[in-house]
Amino acid sequence: MLVGALCAAFYLWKIEVPQYQATALIYMRDANTQISVSDLQLNSELSSDYMVIFKSRPVLNRVIADLALNMTYDQLNNSTSISTIEDTRIIKITVTNTSAKTAADLANQLVERGIDTVEEIKSKQPYTVEKAVVNNNKINTSNKKVLLMGMLLGLVAGVGGLFIQFMLNDKVRSIDDIEKTLGVPVLAGIGENKDLAKSRKGGRKK
């Protein structure tokens, strides 16, 4: 127990990278919609629009530029989660980072940039939320999977070939083969001198 506790303490102290979360809340309401229970479905659809806009590439890139952070869009996108609180018009934005202050700054800046983008979209429709960018990552089968499948098929083919070769081999190679084939026990055997056999083969070649 003591060794386990020391190992766990070493992991927490030296190996584990601490992660911190910061959450910002937004009260979302369409100006043309009255506050009523019947409008929950409309607000739910509007919340889904907001969630897409807040995590769009332009918004996240602006947040990174505003805070002058050394991170990519994918890193911020993967560390950001946006959801709605059930039966409310409140959107919850949570950012995870190795720095508690950076996580809070990202969440707050994301709220500001997201709201600015939403207001811009409302004043200009249709609106391009995100332009396409070049993505050099293949979407078909990955190289690792192809290599692993090739290795597996090669292993199966090799083992299968050896098994078939063994099953089709009808040569007599041992005393057990003689006894099984003839049905009589072997009383004695004459061994072969391998060195003599090799010298004979060599003489024949010459």
- Strand elements, count: 3
**What letter string, H or E per element, gives the SSE order?**
HEHHHEEHHHH
* Radius of gyration based on Cα positions: 36 Å
* General shape: elongated
| Rounded average pLDDT | 80
Percent range for β-strand residues: 5-15%
Query: Helix- and strand-based class?
Result: mainly alpha
Amount of helix: 55-70%
Low-confidence stretches: 33-40
User: In angstroms, what separates the terminal alpha carbons?
Assistant: 74 Å
Side by side, the strands of the main sheet go 1-3-2
Count of alpha/pi helices = 8
Q: What summary fits the major beta sheet? A: 3 strands, antiparallel
Keywords, please?
8 helices, 206 residues, 56% helix, mainly alpha, single chain, three-stranded antiparallel β-sheet
Describe this structure in words.
By secondary structure, the protein is mostly helical. The chain is 56% helix and 10% strand. The chain has eight helices and three strands; from the N terminus they run H-E-H-H-H-E-E-H-H-H-H. It has helices spanning 2-15, 40-54, 57-67, 73-78, 100-123, 143-168, 175-182, 194-205, and strands spanning 20-27, 80-84, 90-97. It has a three-stranded antiparallel sheet with strand order 1-3-2. Helix 3 packs across helix 5 (100-123). The protein is elongated, with a radius of gyration of 36 Å.
